[in-house]
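User: Fold this; tokens only.

Assistant: Input:
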Amino acid sequence: MDKDFNKSIKPVKFVLGSQYFLYFGVMGIFLPYFNLYCYHLDFSGFQIGVLSAIRSFALVLCPPIWGFMADRFQTRRLIYIFCNFISTVIWVFYFFTTDFWAMLVISGFYGIFYTPIISFLEAFTMDVLGKEKKSYGRIRAWGSIAFIVVVITLGKIIDLYSIEIILILIFAGSMFQAGISLKIPNITITKEKSFTPKVRVLLKRRAIVFLFCAFLMLVSHGTYYGFYSIHLENLGYGNTFIGICWALASIAEILVMIKSDIIFKHFSIDNVLVFSFMVATLRWFALFFATNPVAILFLQIFHAVTYGTFHVASILYIDSLTTDETKTLGQAVNNATTYGLGLMVGFFFNGYLFETMGLFRLFMISSFIALGGGVLLKCSQIMDRRAGLS
């Protein structure tokens, strides 16, 4: 990295924190309420699942391509700014239609440019932190703070006005993020003669097994991320309670992220990952039975592990596997496999079975999927230890 960049690390951390704040602030609008917005447009469960899946499909395909280009040609900052502005412009088209097919096309184009943003941001953060990478959670926590503030206040705003207001708020948040993205520094890594061999680290067994298990983890989250708000509304809860549920999950998550450096001083990344799978298994299994508000709220605390520790451990694990020249690509592949392919399969699966099976049974199936991922990852770790790889 440039010497001038190292001297200005504190302002850079502030810029990165603001990017996380705005990105997950927008996510706090989109994730709990966009599918609910579609539900109020009388879209079927299958149509909602397809809209969610098309965005996830873009997350599978696009970030690795953008990430490869960024690492290969050292254009990470330029692509990051470009994707922020273009995705914001594309969002405007949602204002002019409520037709399913038009929204499907908009979602596809929006996903092409929106999906690389988070993986690029993760790569920027890893580079900025350098030897302090285990404190990543402290910067990432700004995103959780924004998510909490948004989901708590937005439920009341929607109750006062209408759910259509989310379109305007998402556009406004995206505009702010795009503007501040211009402040992202130009981080350059000294390129070695050959780039392609460095990419092959992602084809090794350890990386493939981890990515497959992480894929299963996010498949198990498909019921939660795609239909949790609808599930709560069908149980008779209002938007304010729905917002509180999402906020409580983020509060639990943020406490873990702020203390992530302490957690990883006492526990290995491998053990944290397996523990996260086991807690996810318990969480989805319990939601098969939960209808009482106290039980529902209590289970949201588990998000600290099923998302908080799992996400931080995943970022650190992929960072440990990749070289300096392939950091962006590594994080892009991780996001594509998990939040892309994993959620896409989860959304399709849940959307298809939503009317026939009901959400209670889908949570039970999610529990078994998480269990399978955890068992496979643990078996792989045992094999690695016997082979002397860890």
